[in-house]
Amino acid sequence: MLGKRVGDVIPLEKVELQNVEFNSSTDSEPRLQRIMGFIEDVEIRNIGIWGMGGIGKSRTLKLLNNRLVESHMFDIVIWVTVSGEGSRRKVQNDIAERLKYNKKDMSDNGLRAFISNKLSVMKFLLILDDIWEKIDLCDVGIPILNQDNGCKVLLTTRDLDVCRQMETNEEIQMEKLSEEEAWSLFNEKVGDVVMSPSIEPIARDIVKKCSGLPLAIIVIGSSLRKIRYVSVWRNTLRKLQLPSTPQIKGMEKAVFSCLRISYDRLPNDFERNLFLYCSLYPEDDEILTTELVEYCWLEGYIQGVDSIEEARDDGRHMVMNLVDASLLERGDDEEHIKMHDIIRDFALKEASGFLVKTGKHVKYPPEEREWLESQKISLMGCSLGCLLERPNCESLSTLLLQYNSQLTMIPDSFFKCMHSLCILDLSQTEIKSLPSSLCNLGNLRGLYLKDCRNLEELPSQVGALKQLEVLDLGGKIAINLGGETAIKYLPRVVGELTRLKRLIVGFQHHNCWRKTEEWNMKLRVPTGIIPKLPYLEELSLYVKDGPLCVDKEQWDDESMEVVVEELCRLEHLTYLDAYFPNVECLEHFLRQRKSVWCRRFRFRVGTPIRDPSLYWHNQQWERCLVYKGGFGTSHAAIMETLAHCSYFLLGYHLTIRKLSELGLANMNELKECWIIRCDKMKTLFDGDEQQETCALLPNLKKLQIEILPELRSLFDGPLLPGSLSKLTELRLQYCDNLKKVFQLGIIRQLCSLESLEVRYCLTVEQIIEIEEEMSMSVASHTHNVISYNNDRLILPNIKKIILSSLPELVSICRGFSNFEWPSLETIYIWDCPKLKSLSFLSNGTNIVAPALERIDCESEWWEALEWEDNDIKQRLQPLFSPF
Fold first, then answer.
1. DSSP assignment of 89-119, as one string?
2. Which whole number is the average pLDDT over 324-349?
């Protein structure tokens, strides 16, 4: 250590442990090991540990501190509990005290110089516990951390944003305890009584309710220590199952007070209100962020925005702030968030005027008194069969009744005393009509009727909802797409809702194969309505797709051309889901529209014949073009739209011979592509467009090709670097002129491919074509393209191969086939009678697919396989899974 003086070294000091403990060897060891790994890494200097209050951050660091006493990794470990409004002076004083300097009258700058001088000759670890805002370490006097001095700073916080402000090199989120860890900790606190046969089942339910939060487990476990009365255990569980749990001994003081600090420190009431609003959702529910944000915007929690898009952006920012503050959790995907059970209990206690009764066990509506006292009511997912005739609830602003599958009727006077109601959600109920008292909802801003499959029409009283900004008659599949209502026509009364900003309509599907009454398709969207809605930002006019759904039979093309003309006048559109009868109609819209390009859209263009196979299951794509039944080479409007697309379906084109006719540069943003029944298409790309110096589909992740009778190759000619580099799924079906799926030079580009599926291609002989002479030349060409030094790695990430109904398939990889398949997990082979060997799985003596888990195939086929080495068959035999 440079300049180190023996007399300056201060002995390490243990941190006094609080009596709130848990088994460090069982519960904390993985966390400690991970932190120790970062401490030992010479390139990491600042480490942040973050998580909700009560998750065990401080306790883990105290155990770490005391372990470091024995390791002699540092000359000194300095622990500072910052908390609350921890000032620079407070931090300096604590550090100075640890350095055995107790003069209190030194100036801030003097203390800074003292600390800097002392620590500059030591290898130190500074632990800053419970930070709420950025601390300038230079102002405190902390020397610059570098690899030479080996010094480290370790901090804990509830807010990930604090880690960012402190410029930590690594952030560790303290996760909830696993089920096993939680049970172990609870056992430790409660004692042997928990093993009683009459108590253990109740105890396990109690632990589940704590959802892995150590502080809650400790508090509740301590309150039940050595108690053998089953009635007390049952009562504790019952209290935990109530909407709020402060009556359990210690919960208010230890747990809720801890959470209240985080809640009180939120920057404004808007974020606090959004946080509380989350408690209206059922326990353990995955909350759709866009839905939550839209509710909060309509409630007035998001202000200072000029559009729904801005409200969503602002709302998402608020939601992520709450996630960073450990008050919300990320959901199973990017679109959802969750609320911890204990935090939800806290939110319901903090919220004023919230009435929340959710779940199938709720069979009866709230009593009159409860309606009177409520401002927000959530009855999501209940088993309500009826409602009160006329509840008195003048202060009610939110009423959430969605997912009540037994609710078939709303009393006629139900809404008469709900003059303040702002949000009404009746989605996925079985109601057939809306009551006349709907006209009393003069302040309603959002009406949600998604997937009300029995709702056949909107009443004339809808016209009285003059403040309505959102009318959603769509479906649950996606926030912006139509769904399954029984509504045939958009009523003219919608034209009176002049403040409407978002209109989503999922019309009833007209099945012309069945004998039903004749529909007047001109009335799907009566002309003259759209011009009366000048503030529309988001519009979806959609018939739920299905195997027998063809746009031509769902719309009147002549009237839709008039509607498209009306759409051109809308100045604020950011989302549009619409049907264009032909390319010329789309061209007219693109040239005449007053709005800029929609951020999100779903355009359906063209009218092919009916075909049950043309059914695109995924309907939640937001920049999507479905082009059916095209012909000729007039592609200008399609190409312009395609340049903005993430998802593209091309079907029934009568003349197109290759996908690249639409321009490679226009496909740079595509993520998914489906090509079906283009009878003249021979290849996707043949090299003629090379002058464009453009990689082929550089962002494409999924490619599905079906029923191309003239397809002879996927790609002809060399591909430029970056082509297909993100493709993860490839599916080929019914391509009856295709003999070889890939050439080696092309397959080397597919470094991200995870799933390959080839079915019902009657002439396919090989999956990968390899010729000795081409192998060498292509390998040298592609070495500069793909960063693999090992020529034996061609599909390094392939996990699944499915080969089905390929009567001429002879080999998967014939010729020079000494390749490795490091990620391959599953092989599925069915009805491939000429495929006699799985030699591609071995190099003669060794299996080259170390991750392989199963081979699904027919027993007779498996037994008839030819093996170069019988030992390979014996080693693969356990993976064989017969149909």
1. HHHHHHHHHHTT---S-S-HHHHHHHHHHHH
2. 87
> Looking at the domain covering 254-349, what would its CATH class be?
mainly alpha
pLDDT digits (tens, 9 = 90+) for 491-524: 899 999 999 999 998 887 655 444 455 666 566 7
For 6-173, CATH gives: 3.40.50.300
Please list the residues that pair with 129 across neighbouring strands. Answer: 81
pLDDT in tens, 636-651: 999 999 999 999 999 9
Please say if the pLDDT value at position 794 is more than 90.
no
- From the list 250, 215, 254, the residue with the least C-alpha distance to 236 is 250
| Residue 158 CB neighbours (<10 A) | 25
Q: Summarize pLDDT for 695-743 with one digit per residue, the tens.
A: 889 999 999 999 999 999 998 877 888 899 999 999 999 999 999 998 8
DSSP state of 842: B
Sketch the domain layout of the chain as residue ranges.
6-173, 179-241, 254-349, 358-621
Residue located via tokens 């191309």: 708
Amino acid at 814: R
What's the pLDDT at 784?
38
Ordered alpha helix ranges (H), 171-282:
179-190, 200-210, 214-223, 230-241, 257-264, 269-277
Q: In terms of Cα–Cα distance, which of 98, 66, 76 is closest to 11?
A: 76
Contact 126, 79 (CB under 8 A): no
Q: How confident is the model at residue 353 (pLDDT cuts 50, 70, 90)?
A: very high
DSSP letter for 419, please. Answer: T
Contacts of residue 219, Cβ cutoff 8 Å, sequence gap at least 6: 248, 249, 250, 251, 254, 255
Q: Minimal CA–CA distance to 800: which of 741, 851, 764?
A: 851
Distance from C-alpha of 442 to C-alpha of 461, rounded to nearest angstrom: 11
Structure tokens that stand for 128 in this block = 């800053």
Mean pLDDT of 226-231: 85
What DSSP letter does each residue of 134-159 carry, written as one string? ---HHHHTPPPP-TTT--EEEEEES-
**d(Cα 193, Cα 483) in Å, to the nearest integer?**
54
Q: Does domain 358-621 have CATH number 3.40.50.720?
A: no
Express each pLDDT in 262-294 by its tens digit.
788 888 999 999 999 999 999 889 999 999 999
Give me the pLDDT at residue 509, please.
63
- Are 628 and 607 in contact by the 8 Å Cβ rule? The answer is yes
Give the Cα separation of 146 and 120 in Å (integer). 11
| Identity of the amino acid at 737 | N
C-alpha atoms less than 13 angstroms from C-alpha of 731 in its C-beta half-sphere: 13
Dihedral of CA atoms 491, 493, 498, 501 in degrees, nearest 10, equals -30
Residues 11 and 161: beta-carbon distance below 8 Å: no
How many Å apart are CA 540 and CA 475, to the nearest integer?
Answer: 11
Q: Helix 200-210 crosses helix 230-241 at what angle (to 10 degrees)?
A: 30
The pLDDT of residue 435 is above 80: yes
State if pTM tops 0.70: yes
The secondary element (H helix, E strand) that includes residue 747 is helix 744-747
Spatial distance between the Cα atoms of 103 and 88, rounded to a whole number of angstroms: 16
Which helix (DSSP H) or strand (DSSP E) does residue 782 occupy?
Answer: helix 772-783
DSSP code of residue 186? H
Q: Name the 3-class secondary structure at 658.
A: strand
Query: Confidence band (pLDDT; 50, 70, 90) for 483?
Result: low
